[in-house]
């Protein structure tokens, strides 16, 4: 009996310590820019091929803070640094709104946007927990031509950050047709209202598909409308992410 009591006394502190360690483990946090499409979003939607692991987990580019690569220096995501892939550039004006989709929300210190070594913008959350989607409008005064924007999500209570690169085309150039000429209106007796354009249809929901705001899909016999542009991945089925989909 005394031996059993001694064994219990020796084991109990270890079990308490193990429980404490598990409880203290930080929660994971994941996210990426869905629009304008980041390089990982282009890989997830199969717009750019041969991307390796990133096509299955575009939200996972996590590395220590202070990195300057699109991959964050993570070896298995090095395809994001490969300029020979011919990443499509999104036509842009002087300001651009970046939309983040977060698969796990984590206390945030800052969001930063860089072109080369220059920090163009920073948004300070002061350690707050973000929502499932985050939006920032960044002004790019003075920039022209093709530019690669490095966006960084700095987590508040870990030494890590999440990285996403977005290729933009400012002003004229490839991928930007420029403004169309305005036609001269013909006089009419009664003004004709413009046609109403229905929201884009999305068919049956499928992982790897890019959905625009307003797109409608079916899943499990029900219809849903997209609330936020994003590239779908497994686990983001419409019933699971009300921040992205509304039942209709």
Automatic annotation (TrEMBL):
Residues of the region (Disordered) are 174-205
Positions with biased composition (Pro residues): 178-201
Cite the Pfam families for this sequence.
Answer: CBM_5_12 (PF02839), LPMO_10 (PF03067)
Indicate yes or no for the key word Signal. Answer: yes
Coiled-coil residues are none
Fetch the InterPro entries from UniProt: CBM5/12, CBM_sf_5/12, Cellulose/chitin-bd_N, GlcNAc_Chitin_IntDeg, Ig_E-set
| Record key words, sorted | Hydrolase, Signal
**A molecular-function term among this protein's GO annotations:** hydrolase activity, hydrolyzing O-glycosyl compounds
Q: Which GO terms describe its cellular component?
A: extracellular region
Q: Which Gene3D superfamilies match?
A: Carbohydrate-binding module superfamily 5/12, chitin-binding protein cbp21
Q: Which residues form the Chitin-binding type-3 domain?
A: 202-248
Question: A GO biological process this protein is involved in?
Answer: carbohydrate metabolic process
Q: Please give the superkingdom of this protein's source.
A: Bacteria
Signal peptide as annotated in the record: 1-18
What name does UniProt use for this protein? Answer: Chitin-binding protein
